Amino acid sequence: MKALRWIGLALVVALIGVLVWAASTPVTFASREEVFEIPKGTWARRMSGDKVEILPSRIDLTLGVHDILLLRNLDDVPQVFGPTVMMPGQSFRLPFEVASSYSFACTAHLSGQMTIVVAAQPISAWDRLRWRATALWNAVT
Amino acid sequence: MKRSILLLAALLLCAAAHAADALKAGVFDPPRAAPDFTLTGSNGSDLKLSAYRGKVVLLGFGFTSCQAVCPITLGTLGQAQKKLGDQGSELQVLYITVDPERDNAAQLKTYLSHFNSAFIGGTGSEAQLAAVRKDYGIAAEKVAGPDGSYNHSSFIYLIDRAGRLRALMPFGHVADDYVHDVRILLAEP
User: Fold this and answer.
1) Is B93 in contact with B58 (CB distance < 8 Å)?
2) Tell me, what's the ipTM?
3) How many Cβ pairs closer than 8 A exist between chain A and B?
């Protein structure tokens, strides 16, 4: 019984420790780039009637964390990808500095539309905690 | 030890230099040649993109009856050109209409002169303009209704002195961002 109490206490302390870390540590990653690629053969697959979706219709970025969109066309033909025409082998690196919602025409989508939602940098303890909780939730669901 | 410190300092300097040189606009890598075109210019001459080699070109698409995006973008570009001071003469803003029915050369000239008399507009046949839009991945769709408005791509292309399509500035950036990027492109050999 006593052992169980100690284990419970240890778990509570560990949980508090995780929450304190999540709230106090700045959210950083090795790279601020969010990478999306058109794989080789995409055009051929589309021509054969395969409805390939290359990008999600909505991309979420966060200032100071992941705020650079990097698009790469690895296919053999030019693609209208995101806001512009990209040649085979070409990449397009778009940094964002303002939190907002950006809509682009994009033939890479069956809907023809792509929205990039850029959220403010999580600076306060509460924002960091919420950001990490959301990221964890998105990772497991 | 001394060598390690020197190496670290060099790396930090390189990183700082790279950060300072980073464009605010979205960058194409590798850059490709900006597709050339010849349209009717608002200045009364042919508007040929390749004629502006040696200058940095900001290329946009819109229409003179636009109530939303175009006046804001052109106002921003006008501010940027002004802020560039003497360097402004090495910059050329080109604005291509998506509405050839209403935007003839004279209309474009009058409209653009509200923002900067050095701006040059381009118009042509529907087929000519559609070909240019296709080359640059520009969307333009007429909106049903009495005012004949258009939904159109709102970004600005940055073309370097060598005529390469270097970057794309999404709508909403301030004049200082254009000044920053144009200065970087002008500083290139």
Assistant:
1) yes
2) 0.72
3) 49
| Residue A80 DSSP class | E
Picking from A84, A97, A98, the nearest residue to B168 by CB comes out as A84
Reported as a pLDDT band with limits 50, 70 and 90, residue A77 is confident
A10 to chain B, closest Cα gap in Å = 42
Which residue of A84, A100, A102 is in closest CB contact with B137? A84
CB contact under 8 A, A92 and B172: no
Domains and CATH numbers, chain A: 2-140 (2.60.40.420)
Per-residue pLDDT tens for B64-93?
A: 999 888 999 999 999 999 999 999 999 999
CA B24/CA A102 separation, integer angstroms: 16
Q: Do B32 and A69 touch (CB under 8 A)?
A: no
Nearest to B153 among A92, A97, A105 (CB): A105
| Cβ atoms of B84 and B127 closer than 8 Å | no
- CB count within 10 Å of CB A29 equals 10
Q: Does B75 touch chain A (CB under 8 A)?
A: no
Residue type at B14 in one-letter notation: C
> Taking phi first (over 0 means left), then psi (-120 to 50 degrees means alpha), and beta for anything else, what does residue B145 get?
left
Topology given in CATH for the domain delimited by B24-187: Glutaredoxin (3.40.30)
Residue whose tokens read 């794309």: B168
Measure the N-to-C terminal CA separation of chain A; round to a whole number of Å.
36
Q: Give the residue extent of every domain in chain B.
A: 24-187
Per-residue pLDDT tens digits for B121-160: 999 999 999 999 988 888 888 888 777 788 888 889 999 9
